[in-house]
Amino acid sequence: MSNKKFDFIVIGGGHQGLAVGAYLAKAGERTLILERRNEMGGGLSTEEVTLPGFYHNLHSNFHGMIPLMPQYNDLELEKVGVRYYHPEANLGMPLKDGRCLVWYVDEIKTYESIAKFSKKDADAYADFKSKVTAHTDAMLRYIYSPPTKESIEDTHKVLVSLLGEEVFKISAYDWVKSYFENPHVQALALFHMSIAGYDITQKGLAHPGIGYLAFATNWQLCRGGSHFLAHAVGGVFVRHGGDLVENSPVKEIILEGNRAVGVKTQDGKSYFAEKAVISAIDLEQTLVNFLPQNAVGKELCEKIKKLEHGRGDSLFGIHLALKEAPRYTAAKYNPDINQTFNLNIGYETPEDVAEHMDESNRRELPKHPRLNVSVNTLFDPTQAPKGFHTGLMWQFAPFEIGDKSPEYWNEIKHDFAQKCIAVWREYAPNMTEDNILAVYPYTPLDTAQKMVNMRRGGFHTLSLTPEQFDDKRPLPELSGFRTPIEGLYLAGSAMHCHGGIVGSPSYNALQVIGKDFGILDKLPIGNKFWEKKA
Ligand SMILES: Cc1cc2nc3c(=O)[nH]c(=O)nc-3n(C[C@H](O)[C@H](O)[C@H](O)COP(=O)(O)OP(=O)(O)OC[C@H]3O[C@@H](n4cnc5c(N)ncnc54)[C@H](O)[C@@H]3O)c2cc1C
Predict the structure, then answer these.
(1) Are the beta carbons of 243 and 2 closer than 8 angstroms?
(2) Residue 166: is its pLDDT beyond 90?
(3) How far is CA 182 from the centre of its chain?
(4) What is the pTM of this model?
(5) Is the CB of 501 under 6 A from ligand 1?
(6) Helix/strand/coil (H, E, C) string of 420-437?
(7) Residue 229 maps to a domain
(8) Of 191, 341, 501, 507, best ligand 1 pocket probe by most atoms within 8 Å of the beta carbon
């Protein structure tokens, strides 16, 4: 048992847990974070998995909410060395016919690039961007406030006024097909929406994709690797007096009556919190496994066990150590493709995107691998030995293939990785065996084993489906961040609005916790989104 007294205990040291802890510690609250693994950060991990000196972001790589996520300024992350690269050629796709489409940070360049494919689509995209970005505040308020009927209705009103009532009935796929005319423009828009981690063919879920499209060229890369962000947030936490204990999987939440008063870890230690226990991990561990049987009610436990994981958010990754960066055939058409950060290779038409989603939903390996590619060292040469490069390829893939067990991935991952490399080579002929020094496949099973809260390899911790979205996320009765157990709160990515390095679940949980304990004004929250009206 630890003799030290804490006000708050946070379970899980991923970015959500670290961020909650950092705000509380900055407000002078005695806070403990317990992390299962031997290092903090969760999905902010950067490791030398191929060869010494080559650093690979095994999970999050593309950070699309920097610097908009409130933690960035509230925790003064630049003061502790956080820097992001925001590559000018931000999002793009080479095509088999030798052309390419590139979207830039500079909107005029994007317009010109799209106009080469369709002037109508260039106009439509520019019109969309200007309309939607005029409502950035409303979008941020929606993302960074607990979901209430009012906040959801406000956002819906904005989208309906811009895009019509239909937008809440159709899928992202249907919306893109009706909004743009050129298949390649459609494919790039859908690619961008899909990497937000949801099935773009699901009806009733066009609006999150449309929201993401508003930030289509905001993909950014953390200098030194994604893990640097975890170090920085964790550093703020510790410097303000927080206690971080790694290698400490929580196995039990200690109750006094119906109140959470502490936790037990697998090594037998107990820690006590005078105010609250905050879980920044998945629901099943928290409310089913850590509590006495059915403490939150049998019905709720059953509902939690039935929640959907890994739909549209489980990935097969391949990490490469390279002698030289890829040179695309399409560079003859536009040399910027060689310097584009976030690349779609293989979704040439919207049908390609839909086919890939269907295959994944049917638990099939993609017949034609379709890749999300990046070469981070083009922007941050410190991530490989001087003159060398790293390569990253991801694609959606099911946790289980057919009726095989998830372990089947271990049998096929190397062969499948070679098939994926062959696809990259079709577009960039110098991706030869000679150029590739080492290959490290990373399967949905690897994700689930390393990040136990990403059940079934699902990177949102809980899939984004119409039934698990808005004020229904994770379940209507839990969407308020409180639980049936007094003093036990939820702040992980299963909460509104979802996972990804977006930071909203923990930020939203803090607003509830801050109010419940009368400390909201002490928390270093700069932008009080919830106070602003539409
Ligand atoms: C392959 C892959 C690629 C991705 N790419 C991107 C991307 O490019 N951009 C993006 O924004 N997002 C990306 N993501 C998603 C992103 O990484 C996650 O959504 C995000 O990390 C979730 O943050 P979190 O803090 O909620 O959970 P996590 O990052 O999973 O952190 C939870 C922490 O809790 C710990 N924990 C679990 N159980 C216990 C326990 N019992 N006791 C104590 N600690 C425990 C875990 O070890 C972990 O450190 C990707 C994810 C994957 C898997």
Answers:
(1) no
(2) no
(3) 28
(4) 0.97
(5) yes
(6) HHHHHHHHCCCCCCCCEE
(7) yes
(8) 501
Q: Is 281 helix (H, G, I), strand (E, B) or coil?
A: coil
The answer as to whether 267 is a domain residue is yes
The CATH number of the domain holding residue 527 is: 3.50.50.60
| Count of residues making up the chain | 534
> Considering only CA atoms, which residue is closest to atom 7 of ligand 1?
60
**H or E stretch at 478:** none
Tell me how crowded residue 114 is: count the other CB atoms within 10 A of its CB: 26
Domains of the chain: total: 1
Tens-place pLDDT, residues 456-511: 999 999 999 999 999 999 999 999 999 999 999 999 999 999 999 999 999 999 99
Does residue 310's CB lie within 6 angstroms of at least one atom of ligand 1?
Answer: no
Tell me phi and psi for residue 34, to 5 degrees: -110, 125
357 domain-assigned? no
Q: Return the structure tokens found at 183.
A: 């298949």
Asked if 283 and 15 count as a contact pair (C-beta separation under 8 A), the reply is no
Q: Within a domain: residue 246?
A: yes
pLDDT digits (tens, 9 = 90+) for 113-147: 999 999 999 999 999 999 988 888 888 999 999 99
Tell me how many helices (H) and strands (E) the chain has. Answer: 16, 18
- What lies within 8 Å, CB to CB, of 164 at 6+ separation is none
Judging by beta carbons within 10 Å of its beta carbon (0-12, 13-18, 19+), is residue 376 exposed, middle or buried? buried
Domain of residue 262 covers 6-42+223-306+464-531
